[in-house]
Structures are given as C-alpha cells and as structure tokens.
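Consider the following input, taken from an annotated entry for CUB domain-containing protein (Clavelina lepadiformis).
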Amino acid sequence: MMLSSAVVAFTFVIGMFCIIFSTAVESHSERDMLENDEVSYISSNQHTVDEGVGGGLACIKEARIEFHYGFGYIYSPVCSHNVVDHSWHIESKLANYTLTLQKDFVFKLAYQDTLLVYDGPSGNSPLIANFTNGAEFHTRHSSGADLFIRYLSNSYDPSQTSFKLRYAHYVRFRSVHLFAGPEYEFITSPGFPSPYLPDLDYKWYIYPRTLESIELTMLECEIETYDFLTVIVDSHSVDLAPFSVNSFPMTFTGIIDVRVYFKTNYAMALKGFKAKYRSIPLPDDHTWTSTCQYQSYQSKENGISWLYDNLLGAHCVFLPPVNDTSAYKFQIESSDIPNGTTILTINSIKNGVLATLSDFDGFSNYDLGTYQDPNLFIRLLKAVVREDLGFASVNVRYDAVVQELL
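Applying the prediction step yields:
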C-alpha cells in the first residue's frame, strides 16, 4: 500500500513537472517569436484542436501585442500540423502614431497559404492586403493605432513557408530642428540600415548654436533612383540620389544652415543614408553679413525694431550708422518664444559678435548693453522645435545715446 502511494505521488510530481516544463518552453518560444526588447508583449494563446473526422489536427494561435516604441517582428509559424490559423493584433500605444508592416528580406508562401492584413483590431476591420502563394509582399500602413494580421494554411509545410515581417510606428511627415555643437552627432533615414519606408517626407534643419559654420558629412547613401535626398547649404542644393554608393563620404559646409530633405515613393526601397554633423569655426574669408539669411534695414535714428516672423532662419536688421560721439543702447522689451529656440546676437559688420543671448522666452525690459560701432546689426536666429505652438515674437528697442554720458 505504501509502495503504491509512493508510485502515485512520484507519478504526480513527474506529471506536474512535465506540465510546468512544457508551459515554460511554449511561453519562451512564443516570446522569442513575437517580441524584441523594445516591444511590450501582452498575451498569446496557442493550442491544438481536432478538426473532426478526416480533418486532422490544427495549430491555432492568437496573439496581442501592445507596441510602445522601437520595432518588432512577426515570424512564420512553428507547427507540426498541416492546418494553421495564426493571428496577431498589434496595437500602438503612442498617441497620433500609426503602424507600418513591411517585409524584412524574407517572404515566401506555399500552395494554399494566405496572409491577410486588416486595418484595425480584428478580422472584421477593412482588409488592406491578401497575399497568397507567389505574391510579392508590399508594405502596408494602418490608418489608426491597430493592425490585425492573420496567416492561414490547409497544407502547412515549414520547408515551403517562410516570412519575417517588421512592424514599426509610421510617421509620414516630419520636420526635425537641430543645433550643432563641436562634437559629432548623427542623422539617418528612418530604420537605417534596414530599408526605408515608402511615401516619406522628412526634413532636417541644422543650425549653429553660435556664429559658426556647420559641417555635414554624408557617410553612407544608397537611395532608389526615383527617391529624393537633397542637401541644401546656404540656399544651394545638391541632389544625392544620382550619386553611386562609392561617391561617399561627401562633406558640405554652410554658414547659415544646412538642410536635408528626404522624400520617397512607392517603388523599391534601399538602405537609405547616414550622416554626421558638427559646428566648426567660420572660414577666414567670411563676411559677417554672409551669416544673414534675410536682411532688412532701419532708417530711424532711434526707436523700436520689431523682430517678428514665422519664418525659420537667420534674420538680420541693420541699424543706421552713428557718429563718433554716439552709441546704441539695446534692450529686449518683450519676448514670446513658445515654439522653439531663438538666438539673438548684436554684431559689428567689421568686428563680429558683440553680445549673444539665447533661451530668453518671457524676458521684459532686459538690458543687452551699449555698443559704439558705425555699422551694427541685430541677428535673430529662429528654429522651431515644436511646430504646434504658434509663432514667436521678439521686440528689441535700441536708442542712440551720447558717448560722453556713458
């Protein structure tokens, strides 16, 4: 009797161990198949069901993924049965972002295989793709926060079916405003070195934080013929798409700003580009007026200069010359800069920068100093970092004062 009880207990322990081990292995396999370190994995349910007389067994899996940032992958199934029905519901948890699904080098469906993509959270959502045997995968985008993917097969053969699909957040339009410092920083096409997405319209604006030049080096560039990658240096543009990959690295230097425009179509996609940028000293042969993108002139001997503009770039206001016994006293009367960074400098055409002020949102009656120079100008560099918060305004007062009273 005691022996029988011991056998039963031992059998129970072994059975529980097998169940726990089986569950752990299945859970680990599912986790590896569905997520990387940048994806929040929520739930997956895979089980085998009897399809009935003559139907055999089937692998059924339903997975839900809450996607926060980065990217993730969906792989072809791991199943030992002929009938497969796997589905993935991917939900973006970032506000105002949609999703994109693209091939990651491998996509092959066997006879009687079907891959369906729905624009929404379930199979009742609008169908936006139906891929079958021999079909080439084309990138798909969601109109909202959800994508639903379903794979079906009635004669599953892992040697004939293989796919790896990459999902990520999709932002069609983007403008990025950057300030260059002395150390190198980098910009890349979205997803580099993986193939970039179709129908993109990206712009990078790079400014010097002080009155310096900007150096941009295009390290790698592999762009499809009908896509556009343009570098604009002080209003001079260069189209990089026609250049071969052996033409790079390629370096550009600008005094006012450097801009990179990247626009893609729906044809094939290549790896894209990678560039680095930094600020460097101005060239020896520069003139200070060359640091102005937009120029205007004040004819009054004293008064208020209103620097208000919704345009980006470097705006310069040149002041009337003063005589040898006079100077200009400068003051910020008010400033409202809710949407980005503005840098103001007081400059001499001959001697360069006399004063610099940045990050001065909300200043009122702030003294900038008094300067005696026959040819002064105010330079306002405006870069929008957040485009949803309206325009910026800066009001600078300058008064001519007699030198003897200084």
